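Notebook, p. 212. Picked up where the previous page left off. The plan for this session was modest: take the two constructs that came back from the sequencing core last week, fold each one, and keep the raw output in the notebook itself so nobody has to go hunting through shared drives later. Recording the first one now, exactly as returned: residue sequence, then the structure token string.
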Amino acid sequence: MRAMVLDAVGPVRDNPRPLRLAELPDPVPLRDELLVRVSACGVCHTELDEIEGRMQPSRLPIVLGHQIVGRVEARGDEARAFRVGDRVGVAWIYSVCGNCSFCRRGQENLCDDFRATGRDANGGYAELATVPEAFAYPIPEIFTDAEAAPLLCAGAIGYRSLRLTGLEDGQSLGLVGFGASAHLVLQLTRHRYPRSRTHVFSRTEGERAFARELGASWAGDIDDTSPEPLDAIIDTTPAWTPIVEALGNLAPGGRLVINAIRKEDVDKNALLRLDYPAHLWQEKEIKSVANVARRDVAEFLRLAAEVPIKPEVQEYPLEEANHALLELKQKIIRGAKVLRITRTI
């Protein structure tokens, strides 16, 4: 099979083509696994975190990619939940122990043995991938393969973030950064909280205009002051400056949810501007998001089909994965980026 392979970590500025196109042996599913013929795979900022070493892959070389859509090509002897030919999705959560206290209470995203697709097991920047069948999801028919791909991570993690805000209908929400995740959260918020006003903060006018197209009540720059204090804010950026600015826009008792696995260090000095009375006093809260649980993926796919939520996607051939990642690094974004994987016979 063809795959884009990461051999070593390092800054993208020093190596703008960190992935190489390779021919790898076809994977074979274990007894409880599915073999998936990949048709589309979303491109996520977490892949940049892996490439640049902020979150080290558990092994090298490795195939990245954790927003996989494809069809079941084969099954292990004990895999019975899906049939050959079924369309399935694979998300960031690849497997967990299933026995710890976190797993038993539905917080499997916090399991010490959490294994991630494309970090601890080969992912979807390839023509074939395997996954334990318990961590595969049926894809609603309403979505094309490319549309479904970002729902599996950008959408699911955005849904988890929105739940963690504790937002109530009529309260105000801020979205900091407006990429793959935020443009889906905005659509979901308008459906679930029709009386709430959503304010978007983004560095580029293109993203701000896109947010207004999707129904944002207001859109401004990262360091702008929102028209009203915000009851909840979701940050989806890889930077620190937006955190400080967001806290300044948060209402007393409000909650900032940071939807990022890692933050870059480029502007970390921005934290020195934190002023306790202005940014942290009056019982403001900060909560991080760690991974996703299966519940997040399954529930969001169902909700997305009901609304329906329509992801904006930019498609790239598999061999242009480096180009898509470089654009993501350079913040050339409108919606979500998705790799098209050519089917081979």
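Okay, moving on. Second construct, recorded in the same format:
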Amino acid sequence: MRQKIIYRHWQPGDDDPVLELLVPAEQVDENIYRNKFESSHHEPEGIRLALVNERVVGHVWGDPCSFFIEGKCQRFVTVGAVYVAQDMRRQGIAARLMQDLHAHFKRKGYRGSILDADEEAAIRLYQKVGYQQLTQDLQTQLPPNQNSAQLKWTAVNLSDLSALPQLDERWASQNFPVSCDRIKVYQYNMGGYRVLRSGQNIVGYARWDEPSEYYQHGLIRDPIAPDMNPMEVIASVQAAIETTHTWQTAEGGRYEAPLRSCGYTFEPTTTVIMLSSFGQEIDLTGHHRTAWW
């Protein structure tokens, strides 16, 4: 006889049984999970649970955020920590949790849901509940070129930070998804970024990791440079690096075609970004795709 499954949102006292499910599976950090409501935008209704005899057997977490689309910032939910106990799989639990989560945020007027997946089984699940593949992260190897470039990359200074949100705003008018409710670069992480200058003006910036044990060839994400020619940006990166670096872009991204035209080939990563619209389909005509930052 199949056990009765109870579906509901998170309630006080749920953390211990939730963590018994999620921590061994390396789905969450315990300390972060226990302090999840310290951020005012998180809410109990955004965490959906499946229980059997008070044991948590399924979990999904929706994180409210905003993306710029259709000419304005609109609310979306990003989905994570989707997990079902191994002995309770193939009963439709994950799909039901996702449907309940979507219904909650749709009632609140959210425009859609975005998530990333890296397994075929997960992609098939998300397709069943209304997601479509938006893009996939791609990587290529970019060699140095010591030819001079008009645009120059430099370290980020504190005085540079105020210019970066303005670049995000212009970038978001032509690229999706671009978050518009959080600051990516601030005093304590700016060492992992570089800014692009045309003379004294900041015209772009990028997440920029130098070669390390974790990134053998370094890792440069698509530069956010809304007013610059992509070929000039690529040339500026080549002039700034001394060894071959990995460049990460997105299928359908602004830099994919220019890089291919230069003869570079791409390897797909395991990261697939998926989108589900709530209500009217989101029109992405004229928008390039972007990789997760």
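Notes on construct two before I forget. The chain has seven helices and 14 strands.
Flagging for discussion at group meeting.
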